[in-house]
Design brief:
Blueprint lengths: L8 H7 L22
Protein name: Transport-associated OB type 1 domain-containing protein
Organism: Cryobacterium gelidum
InterPro entries: Mo/tungstate-bd_C_term_dom, Transp-assoc_OB_typ1
Length: 37
């Protein structure tokens, strides 16, 4: 499964995220927006 999220550069740095790194994703249904590709 693939998912994407919008983060500010500061938030990504604070979380220690790096391109290609693995992450766990958890969302609340009320916070989800769907976009057609």
């Amino acid at each position: 499964m693939r998912a994407s999220a919008e983060l500010t550069p500061a938030a990504a740095a604070d979380l220690g995220l790096q391109v290609g790194g693995a992450v766990w994703l958890s969302v609340k249904a009320t916070d989800v927006s769907a976009y057609r590709r």
